[in-house]
Amino acid sequence: MARHINPSRSTNKAIDALDRKRERERRFILNKARDNAPELAIILVQRLIDEHIIETNDVHAIQQGVERQLREPADMEEFEIRLKIADIRTLVPDPNILTLYLTAYVIDDLIKHPKIQDVFGDDLDVYKAIDAVLSKLRK
Q1: Helix (H, G, I), strand (E, B) or coil at 52
Q2: Largest CA distance in the chain
Q3: What is the pLDDT of residue 138?
Q4: 95: closest CA among 134, 63, 69, 68?
Q5: Residue 18 carries which DSSP code?
Q6: How far apart are CA 11 and CA 40, in angstroms?
Q7: 55: nearest Cα among 7, 113, 101
Q8: What is the dihedral of CA 88, 89, 90, 95, to 10 degrees?
Q9: Per-residue pLDDT tens over the stretch 70-96
Q10: Cα separation, 28 vs 135, whole angstroms
């Protein structure tokens, strides 16, 4: 007797496997960022300054804010993160969730920081500058 193959079941299994893999990668990135937040904050702020994305008169205060943002997502609900990045989630085809989160922080919150003089560039410029640093976490 021939075995009946249900394409819907195999499709669901593949989708579930991809979802599990994506969730593991997400957790890995968020936890690694939290564990290395002080060093990453220094590198990120320096990259943003070097790329002429931000202009500040107090680098240390900005580093503290970025460090706080690197620590927070690991303890946040998925919904909270998705709400924060909702406006820019279609910025790139296969985004890094942490890079999107920090991009939203720079665009929405950091621009209002009293120690920031100005933020330059568009959303994609900010994303690329941040992703250049955070892409090293994936390795």
Answers
A1: coil
A2: 77
A3: 73
A4: 134
A5: H
A6: 39
A7: 113
A8: 120
A9: 999 999 998 999 999 999 999 999 888
A10: 13
